[in-house]
Amino acid sequence: MELNIEYKKTSKLTPYVNNSRTHDERQVDQICNSITEFGFTNPILIDEDDGIIAGHGRLQAAEKLGLDEVPTIRLEGLTDVQKRAYVIADNQIGLNSSWDYDTLKLELDALTELEFDLDILALDDLNTFASDTGLDDFFEEPPKDKVDDGLIDLKVKVSASDHATLSEYAKKNGLTYAEMLFNYVGQDNGN
Hints:
Number of strands: 6
Oligomer: single chain
Mean pLDDT: 75
Order of helices and strands: EHEEHEHHHEEHH
Shape: elongated
Strand order of the largest sheet: 1-4-2-3
């Protein structure tokens, strides 16, 4: 199958009515931030009738940004059953991957040194990121006596109920996001 990028008017694209993947306002904002920073690098996948197969969140972000046209790739020849299945598979397959924490730490440290806004990476949702990375057992409120000059004891944990995001907590305590997540929280788990 030859894949060609076609620019289509957002108003002409039809979302799949039974799309089971939801995109709340916060995630749409994250997609908007990504598009603003990097461009529209991930085309929306459509069928022969301009129905969306994958990219519902990207369409919502494009509309929020006021984009009149978006890049699309037309997937021709899929049966209705294949389209329905792909809507789910496209969303789930990416979630089945994992992180190489050592490499991720190096990359986050490098981006921090280059003063890149790590919030654009959308890793700052403590509950989701901690759960997805297997770090959710390592977050609880740090005792006040464990915070010293912005450094946190290796066994200190962060509470999702008191700190909405790791980056906010790190900023509050004078740490980089990578230091908070990996140097302090991650080492307690051997990561």
